[in-house]
Amino acid sequence: MPVILVAVLVVLAIMFFFTITTHLVALLLTLLVAGFIGWLADVIVPGRLPYGWLGAIVAGIAGSWIGSLLFRALGLGDGGFSLFGVPLIPALVGAIILAFVVELLGKQLGGSRALDRRI
Asked: Could you please report the per-residue DSSP string of 19-50?
């Protein structure tokens, strides 16, 4: 009986390990895609996103949220396909909108470099 209990605990531990690992890999891939979307928006919009690569990741995640809301409000659905949970086209549109707003706020607050702090 103790051997069966140990075997069940080992199987449960292995399942837990694989579940946690899968979720961490999915999170890292989502952050990578969001960073790429934010970087692409930074390249398209004149000016610079603040905080470098961290700002690009935040712009990609927030842009995904903004773009998804916008696409749903316009009745366009998800606007294409997703990669690791990030809807690419709405995320890019939202990130571009966000980059324009950040650039506009930067100019209003005292120049386009007012928010540009690099990590």
From this structure: HHHHHHHHHHHHHHHHHHHHHHHHHHSSS--T
86 forms bridges with which residues in the sheet?
Answer: 83
Torsion of CA 29, 34, 35, 40, to 10 degrees: 130
Question: pLDDT tens for residues 4-53?
Answer: 888 999 999 999 999 999 889 988 988 898 889 889 988 888 877 788 88
Inform me whether the pLDDT recorded for 86 exceeds 80: no
Residue 25 identity: V
Q: Which residues, at least 6 apart from 19, have a Cβ–Cβ distance to it below 8 Å?
A: none
Cα–Cα distance for residue pair 99/82, rounded to 1 Å: 21
